[in-house]
Design a protein that fits this description.
mainly alpha; two-stranded antiparallel sheet; 2 strands; 61% helix; 11% strand; elongated
Length: 74
């Protein structure tokens, strides 16, 4: 099992967010996000734009989980 400290976890999260932003900024036609979909294991069919809009909530969920784990070790 790999253990990361808080700073490493947040750095990885920030790097991931930055890569996503770069990818979105590089789209020649952003409307493709409203035309393409994928199958999510829980929410079933989702448009890419729905997925992008939900990332903030998903990130917040993981940040809360990270903080709960850290607080559990105190």
């Amino acid at each position: 099992m790999i253990f990361l400290d808080y700073e490493e976890i947040m750095e990885k999260l920030n790097n991931s967010r930055q890569k996503l932003c770069e990818t979105l900024d590089a789209l020649e036609d952003p409307s493709i996000l409203s035309r393409r979909h994928f199958i999510h294991p829980v929410f079933k069919e989702m448009l890419l734009i729905e997925w992008v809009r939900s990332l903030y909530l998903h990130e917040q969920r993981h940040i809360k989980q990270i903080n709960e784990i850290i607080n559990g070790f105190k």
